[in-house]
């Protein structure tokens, strides 16, 4: 997924490339496809094939997942230390085991269609504000810098974020979050900020307070920041950001409830290790799993966050404003004919700005605490072993759905090139289920070939074997034997 921000007809929108995740529940998918099959006999054979495909794919991954869970039991932050002591392993042996675990883990993340968040994505996502309006920083002194550094040294990757030596953030899926409220303090902050900007413009002090622009990245063309990229697909998802900062000043907006919205990452997983103390070496690997995280508020998933405070720039603005205000006030009073209204205006503006900084910070602190609490109870799905179990099952579900959809299309359409198969699978998902995804046809065909239920002709076209033959090729699975045994002998 590529994330980019741009302005479109005075609206702030984000163009999001479709991902490879199939956002359909497997039972719903199977029932719907079976319903599309006309003949009852073929329908029964198709349902049998779906079960055998799932049982077989689950068996493929069983040993790999078992190794993953066994390795993580040694690095569980709660009980892993005790297990490592029982194993009596040397430091070098533990280093090898933790790198093996990370290798398994990153493979699972890739198979689950998770992507590592890049610096560019973070910059675009945080270019706006949603509910969190405080600068959140990570206390890097509390994080280990060896674990991930050693892994990426042996397994280099492109576009790693700057913090990849301390922690890694994965994301998958795109959603939309909306919040409706009066937003009294936020609207007041917006009004004062616009007045402050107008005063800076009139007094020509804007340059004093303006932030230095960040150097442009080598892969970013600033001339195209307000236009869709030339290679952007028409079917890309375009989501509008609705923020208070861009709100029109109208009576309805100022005194009534408004709705703001922000794109979300449907799933986010954070991996890190806490720093070792002087007396104890930390070996635990922390894995946190979150859901529905607004892009502009992704700081809430950061590990070991510092308590937020006013930034140095806020203090500079505050102190300079006080000095300028007092100097202007004294100068007005020393004039032979001091205008009391001018004095009151200056004094009111100075007090209002100081109050704005204080009350805005206090309001943001309350919001921050609420968001952190919500992330712990509502948005954090699981951690550690629970997250790994979820990922293992998720890999199986995605693999099964890819195989079922691609086989169904080949069964209905006959021989197809890989590009035609890709397009028809995506069309089926959109037409029958109203969802969009970038179907991973290469991986699907690879699994179909591994199952032995498709063939390729001399020019590369793909065709599936008949349903009955496909079931014979896969054969009776262990699960079917167990289920038959449970039913007992037929009398």
Automatic annotation (TrEMBL):
The keyword Membrane applies. Residues 211-234 are annotated as: Disordered. It comes from the Eukaryota. InterPro entries: DUF3754. The keyword Heme does not apply. Residues 220-234 have a biased composition (Basic and acidic residues). This is Uncharacterized protein LOC120269969. It comes from Dioscorea cayennensis subsp. rotundata. The gene is LOC120269969.
